[in-house]
């Protein structure tokens, strides 16, 4: 889950398959055949020594390594960071590099950034003069503009030097910075350089960002959430070289792994949470706090390291003194931290993978505004996440996992997450929360801590393919949420994506992040629903779980692409899924399978004594014509009844009477059969099965398995699954023969009875068609009122209320 200012561009990946791209590879010029099962080989990158056809890292796979040594100081009053850092860059690529690219994410807030200059107006429809209806501009939009104009934002960078103290040439391009090296960096070599930097911290609530500060008017304190806070190396990859796309808001961050040594200087009464392990606890924590932290390693429920009472005391204080917190982190791709005197802090140890595995400390940092909601559920949700995700991937690889409350709704970084839900202060001084807030907290903690696995360890390229971290993670947080409590409406079932799937306002999942029209359903819900269907419907849990875990373990601490995921899932499961990826990820088709007709057939045995009797029964079962029925009711006598003395052969024998000629013909037919043919026919006649032909239409375009629920005359039901390959020769219309036992006649058929395939129209899934349940709401019709002008003569007599009177009126309401 992300909270960010989103400005959409118009950049599509080459992998975002269109019909034009398909046509350039294969062209169907005869008939109307469309191959929904065409292999993706013509679309996916060609396997090479870096990435194999199996979806594994190749024998010459490489990635860069970057270490950071940073000293940073928080100026609480000025709300400004100042820092210096030394960066060690190891070139593991086969290429010689003449320059390095760094990300300057804070520059997105500069007035001349691409993001700001391309921001579009989102008010209501404009009208020309004379203007009967004004357009709308929200106060939050005005607040943002005012904050941006009142503050100097973006990085200030100085003293960029190599390890010999020699200046390096720097070129800033929007949210990127190029450093020209004094000497080319050859393969296998490393270089070191340093710089000073500073920036003014944005007010998150005002600007809408992924980090920043939050000010609390009542107690005068702030919570600082610091992320994207230092110039970071852009990734240099085998598939794209430098990933130096400007940061526009949606496409996140593609970074390199490395080791961090970070010293953070803050007011002495602040509590700091950060990526990494605290290296100087004896300098910044009291003996009591250190003892509590030790105690928390082996408790069933979280232990407070900083209690609520202690946090409340801190809120009242304030100091000019400072403390320096020292954190070290190994093999991480980013570093974030949080600082506030408002924080209470709880912790609980999690022993994973047996007693021989390192203990993980799950910890939460939150102000009094978090209340019992955070006390009860935040740290427990961290542990639950690790339990579920480790089952699907690998043991949690770091010493700590943290959840921090602040102004950011939800963001993730290695070992630390920012999460927003809070309680409401009531008149009696208590704090309460709704079920929605409870769901939000548990869900966002699971989601953001889950991101520590994907993409903080399985290091997918968020700038390019948002779905690779958000979609995979949303699928897994759906598993974890339902394993927490399935009665809570998590919104992760296939049925929950139906409205988006049939909407016109969408693009393929394989669209570059900044060009996605609706990021939530496109990057989160749709791929999550797709993977849920892949696991529960198409592959089954055993095959899916094996393949997914294989993917996670293959690409742990590495950088996978979509092709690596697609190929691994197919290679490890042993199932051809190209049709699935093509439909769900490369198209905007939706699922709408209609059961149009059901034909009931009976076997023609060729035996006239059997078949003619059946024909007689069929004729007798037809409705009596209205003419005949009314004549009978009126007791009208027929001619044959009044003239019973005139009869012939046909009065005694109907047209279904069997003759010996027909019997002889049947016997001749039997003699002409091969023994095996006679055996087959005899068995079919003896069993006298029910034969049904089901006729389906694919109205949505997305081919899928057909899930059937067959209901029989005796009340029993049977589930059948027809694989998606039934559509391989005709993706629009198919027929399927269903055979049932003689004593099992069908009475109804339902397609996708449990709504497991995201079918957008369940009403055409029933045969016979059902009466559609709906609802009606009674309302009182308002009398239309003609527009009147302001009655100033009357309104001016109204007495002006004081603030106290306004409050009283509000309470009475």
UniProtKB/TrEMBL annotation:
Signal peptide (from-to): 1-23
Start and end residues of each Peptidase M1 membrane alanine aminopeptidase domain: 378-584
Keyword Oxidoreductase listed: no
Keywords noted in UniProt: Signal
CDD domains: M1_APN_like
Pfam families per record: Peptidase_M1
Statement: the UniProt record of this protein carries the keyword Signal: yes
Name of the featured protein: M1 family metallopeptidase
Source species taxonomy: Bacteria, Pseudomonadati, Pseudomonadota, Gammaproteobacteria, Alteromonadales
């Amino acid at each position: 889950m992300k909270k960010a200012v989103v400005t959409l561009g118009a950049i599509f990946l080459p992998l975002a398959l269109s019909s034009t791209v398909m046509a350039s590879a294969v062209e169907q010029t005869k008939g109307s055949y469309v191959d929904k099962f065409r292999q993706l080989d013509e679309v996916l990158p060609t396997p090479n020594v870096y990435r194999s056809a199996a979806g594994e890292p190749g024998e010459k796979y490489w990635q860069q390594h970057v270490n950071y040594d940073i000293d940073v100081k928080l100026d609480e009053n000025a709300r400004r960071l100042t820092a210096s850092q030394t960066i060690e860059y190891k070139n593991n690529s086969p290429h010689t590099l003449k320059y390095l690219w760094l990300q300057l994410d804070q520059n997105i807030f500069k007035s001349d950034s691409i993001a700001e200059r391309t921001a579009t107006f989102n008010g209501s429809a404009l009208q020309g003069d004379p203007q009967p209806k004004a357009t709308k501009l929200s106060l939050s939009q005005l607040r943002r503009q005012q904050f941006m104009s009142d503050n100097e934002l973006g990085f200030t960078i100085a003293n960029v030097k190599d390890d010999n103290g020699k200046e390096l040439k720097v070129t800033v391009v929007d949210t990127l910075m190029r450093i020209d090296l004094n000497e080319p960096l050859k393969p296998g070599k490393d270089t070191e350089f340093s710089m000073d930097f500073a920036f003014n911290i944005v007010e998150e609530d005002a600007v809408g960002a992924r980090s920043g500060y939050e000010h609390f008017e009542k107690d005068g304190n702030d919570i600082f959430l610091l992320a994207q806070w230092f110039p970071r190396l852009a990734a240099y990859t085998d598939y794209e070289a430098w990933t130096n796309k400007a940061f526009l808001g949606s496409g996140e961050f593609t970074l390199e792994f490395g080791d961090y040594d970070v010293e953070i200087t803050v007011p002495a009464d602040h509590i700091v949470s950060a990526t990494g392990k605290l290296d100087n606890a004896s300098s910044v924590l009291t003996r009591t706090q250190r003892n509590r932290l030790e105690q928390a390693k082996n408790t069933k429920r979280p232990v407070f390291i900083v209690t609520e009472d202690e946090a409340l005391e801190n809120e009242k204080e304030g100091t000019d003194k400072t403390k320096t917190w020292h954190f070290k982190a190994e093999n991480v791709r980013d570093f974030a931290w949080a600082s506030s005197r408002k924080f209470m802090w709880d912790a609980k140890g999690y022993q994973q993978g047996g007693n021989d595995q390192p203990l993980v400390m799950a910890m939460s940092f939150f102000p009094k505004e978090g209340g019992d909601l955070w006390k009860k559920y935040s740290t427990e949700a961290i542990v639950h996440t690790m339990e579920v995700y480790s089952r699907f991937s690998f043991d949690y690889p770091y010493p700590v996992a943290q959840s921090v409350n602040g102004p950011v709704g939800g963001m993730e970084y290695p070992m630390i997450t920012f999460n927003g839900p809070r309680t409401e202060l009531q008149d009696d001084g208590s704090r309460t929360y709704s079920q929605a807030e409870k769901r939000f907290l548990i869900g966002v903690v699971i989601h953001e801590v889950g991101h520590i696995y994907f993409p903080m360890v399985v290091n997918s390229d968020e700038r390019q393919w948002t779905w690779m971290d958000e979609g995979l993670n949303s699928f897994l947080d759906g598993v974890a949420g339902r394993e927490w409590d399935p009665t809570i409406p998590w919104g992760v079932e296939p049925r929950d994506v139906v409205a988006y799937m049939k909407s016109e306002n969408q693009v393929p999942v394989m669209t570059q992040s900044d060009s996605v029209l609706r990021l939530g359903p496109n990057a989160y819900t749709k791929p999550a629903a797709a993977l849920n269907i892949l696991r529960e419907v198409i592959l089954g849990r055993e095959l899916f779980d094996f393949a997914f875990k294989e993917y996670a373990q293959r690409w742990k601490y590495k950088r996978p692409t979509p092709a690596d995921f697609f190929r691994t899932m197919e290679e490890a499961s042993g199932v051809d899924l190209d049709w699935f990826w093509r439909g769900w990820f490369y198209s905007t088709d939706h699922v709408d399978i209609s059961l149009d007709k059901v034909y009931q057939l009976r076997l023609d045995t060729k035996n006239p004594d059997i078949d003619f009797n059946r024909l007689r029964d069929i004729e007798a079962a037809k409705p009596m014509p209205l003419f005949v029925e009314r004549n009978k009711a009126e007791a009208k006598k027929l001619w044959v009844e009044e003239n019973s003395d005139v009869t012939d052969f046909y009065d005694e024998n109907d047209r279904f009477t069997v003759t010996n000629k027909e019997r002889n013909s049947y016997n001749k037919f039997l003699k002409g059969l091969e023994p095996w043919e006679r055996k087959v026919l005899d068995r079919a006649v003896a069993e006298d099965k029910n034969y049904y032909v089901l006729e389906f239409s694919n109205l949505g375009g997305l081919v899928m398995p057909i899930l059937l629920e067959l209901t029989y005359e005796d009340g029993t039901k049977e589930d059948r699954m027809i694989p998606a390959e039934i559509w391989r020769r005709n993706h629009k219309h198919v027929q399927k023969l269903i055979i049932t036992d003689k004593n099992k006649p069908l009475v109804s058929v339902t397609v996708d009875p449990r709504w497991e395939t995201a079918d957008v129209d369940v009403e055409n899934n029933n045969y016979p068609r059902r009466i559609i349940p709906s609802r009606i709401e009674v309302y009182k019709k308002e009398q239309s009122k003609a527009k009147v002008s302001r009655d100033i003569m009357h309104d001016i007599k109204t007495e002006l209320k004081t603030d106290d009177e306004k409050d009283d009126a509000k309470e009475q309401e």
